[in-house]
Amino acid sequence: MKFEQLAAAVIHDVKNQLQSLMDEEQLAIEQLPAQYRSIIEPILQRTNRLKNDALQLVILFRLGQNRPFPMDDAWLRDSANDAIEASLIQFPSVRLINEIDEDCQGFYNENLIHLALMTLITNSVQAGATTVTLKGEEIDQASGGVRIQVIDNGPGFSKSMLDSQGETADEVSSHTDGTGLGLYFVKLIVDHHKAPALGTSVVLSNNAKKGACVTLNLP
Questions:
Q1: Structurally, how many domains does the chain consist of?
Q2: pLDDT of residue 161
């Protein structure tokens, strides 16, 4: 077994152990008197962040090795709800809104899109947003194509970020701030959903009044 494969196996095991630790922490919070829960909650949040970082490493390795992720029919509202529920562990005071219609269906890898949405929510909150809204719609019923938007009330994207949105994922990774690295990861995920003769895209924009918007177009 190659070193890279061993490293990926270890990281995957770490991710599973962190998930088990989170489960134990959540159980402890439920059983503790209310006045003591605030002591454990920051530990749960940090454990959740470490688990997500480990999961990102596993996915980055698989994407780097060009290993396929299975695609299947999925309901976009449910995928968004899962991402919101997981993000609220990390950011309980942030308002997360799901405006995706219940009938919106797509064809994608649910685990990858779940992680992409969590990454974008994290980017928004770290930039200063207090409200993040998820929107989505079908753009091609025949192929299962969907458009997903993550809209926040933060400060918006800088001019340099907007100017770089035509770059490849590798070029985006040259940005030194956390938003650039998060977008690099999201671009890798979206690019993995490319289909023959159909393109994908990640579009950055600023809202008319305040905040940023990231649009994911999946074929």
A1: 2
A2: 83
